[in-house]
Design brief:
By secondary structure, this protein is α+β, with helices and mostly antiparallel strands. The protein contains 2 helices and 5 strands, in the order βββββαα. The longest helix has 11 residues. The chain starts with a strand and ends in a 10-residue tail after the last helix.
Length: 111
């Protein structure tokens, strides 16, 4: 664990002590492609932070950073996972990251 900070494009500066649990980077398929980086951090207190960075592949200065803080104690693991995935809009890249890197099961059983 080490000191970290996330400077959001809109929203507060987030400072914490933590570590990266998982990270992936990909490029969008569009007329103006973006490089997208998704990260899941774990804080010293056990909270999670989802971070999304979008920047222009053409390097024209476009950069957008946003984050979500998911508070929990480890007893609410499923709720925390759902909140992180909702933030990432359940993208295929996010699913792949959490399934392969964190071994999460993205399945809910309903009675």
């Amino acid at each position: 664990m080490e000191p970290a900070k996330i400077v959001q494009s809109r929203g507060p500066l987030i400072q914490f002590i933590g570590r990266v649990l998982a990270e992936t980077t990909f490029e969008t398929d569009a007329a103006n492609p973006l490089r997208v980086t998704l990260r899941i951090w774990q804080t010293e207190a056990g909270n999670w932070i989802g971070q999304r960075i979008r920047e222009s592949v053409d390097h024209d200065g476009i950069r957008d950073v946003d984050a979500v803080i998911v508070e929990g104690s480890g007893h609410e693991t499923m709720a925390m996972r759902l909140a992180i995935m909702d933030f990432f809009d359940w993208s295929p890249q996010a699913r792949k990251m959490v399934c392969y890197d964190l071994h999460w099961k993205c399945t809910m059983e309903v009675a």
